[in-house]
Specification:
Helix content: under 10%
Order of helices and strands: EEEEEEEEHEEHEEHEEEEEHEEEEEEE
Strand order of the largest sheet: 12-5-13-17-20-19
Number of helices: 4
Structural class: mainly beta
Largest sheet: 6 strands, mixed
């Protein structure tokens, strides 16, 4: 939506696009809406995608205009993402947060964006620091969890979003080689959590599980319990590569484990179709659960052995005894008969 903005520049706040003194402002999507988008690309996206969507239906089809061109269709519901924004004077911070920001103004010694003069001062009372971590950094998740007790575990706002993007090389660094095939689209991971694990789920060899960590305030800005969504769609051959499975059908179980190791209640979905494995969990609560997926494989059906050619069963040989006077002969065959002058002896 374009609106007059007077003198604007590319750095104007809240302008997604600036063109000819016009500012395209950001607006939230309707809550609970299901949106469909179809795009044509010169080539298919590769690696992994991340989405702020839920309950998706996704199709990727060649267009025929070239050997690499594809048409991607995505129908999915918007998600409500809790946002946290808080400012506080140094004197009002609890001791744990003072200790975290004391050295640099950034969380646990990390650099921070700063405003006003004396921002490099070693005295926290003389500097004004701003921190805005990415939603997928380990530091960002730790920082959010550190602030939650100070903000009553409640979001500042809940923004309705619908977005899909490619995961960056940074987010994919250190992932399993099965996940990092850049010649194909390997999967999509989607959540409405404030912060989440970078990249696709990590494989825990000890537990044999694909783990994905998320974190968010327990309550929405309106004071209701915030309920999480998680969708994982990945190629079946990628899953088999991770576990070393054959082509036999896959089975999966999903659990949402809270900070105390207790499995929380959630609606769960597992299915495999057309070479893709879909796993989802909806309705779980926060603050910092781990979503854990375990894959197993059904036994492959043994093929029956063929013992005779052309469906003809092998006939069994029979031995009979034949007698003429005091002479006894044994005759064997599939249908034995006594020689002339001999009679078959009763057995």
């Amino acid at each position: 939506m374009f609106s007059p903005a007077g003198r604007v520049s590319a750095t104007t706040y809240d302008c997604v696009i600036v063109a000819e003194d016009q500012c395209a402002r950001r607006h939230a999507f309707p809550v609970g809406a299901r949106i469909y988008i179809k795009v044509r690309l010169s080539q298919s996206p590769t690696g992994w995608l991340h989405g702020r969507i839920s309950n998706p239906t996704i199709s990727i089809q060649p267009t025929g205009s070239s050997s690499t061109a594809v048409e991607i269709g995505i129908a999915a519901a918007t998600v409500s993402v809790p946002i946290v924004a808080k400012s506080s004077e140094w004197s009002a911070l609890p001791a744990t947060l003072k200790e975290a920001y004391r050295a640099t103004g950034g969380f646990n010694g990390a650099p921070s964006g700063s405003r006003l003069h004396n921002h490099n001062s070693a005295d926290p009372e003389l500097r004004n620091s701003i921190t805005a971590p990415t939603p997928y950094s380990t530091t960002g998740m730790s920082e959010l969890l550190a602030w939650l007790p100070h903000i009553n575990d409640t979001a500042t706002a809940n923004i309705s979003l619908w977005a899909v993007r490619s995961l960056s090389a940074y987010e994919l660094s250190g992932t399993s080689s099965c996940f990092s095939n850049n010649s194909q689209l390997n999967g999509l991971v989607m959540t409405n959590a404030t912060t989440y694990s970078a990249g696709p789920p990590t494989f825990d060899k000890a537990n044999g599980s694909l783990d994905y960590k998320v974190a968010a305030p327990h309550y929405t800005s309106g004071g209701h319990v915030f309920l999480g969504t998680y969708d994982l769609i990945m190629r079946s051959d990628v899953a088999r590569c991770i576990y070393g499975f054959s082509k036999a059908p896959l089975n999966a179980s999903i659990s949402v484990v809270d900070n105390d190791g207790v499995t929380t209640v959630a609606t769960k979905l597992v299915s495999e179709k057309d070479g893709w494995l879909r796993i989802a969990a909806y309705g779980f609560d926060f603050s910092s659960p781990t979503i854990r997926v375990k894959l197993t494989q059904a036994s492959e059906t043994a093929k029956p052995k063929t013992t005779a050619k052309s469906g003809t069963a092998k006939q069994k040989k029979i031995t009979i005894s034949c007698k003429k006077g005091k002479t006894v002969k044994k005759v064997s065959g599939t249908s034995p008969k006594c020689p002339a002058g001999y009679k078959k002896m009763k057995t």
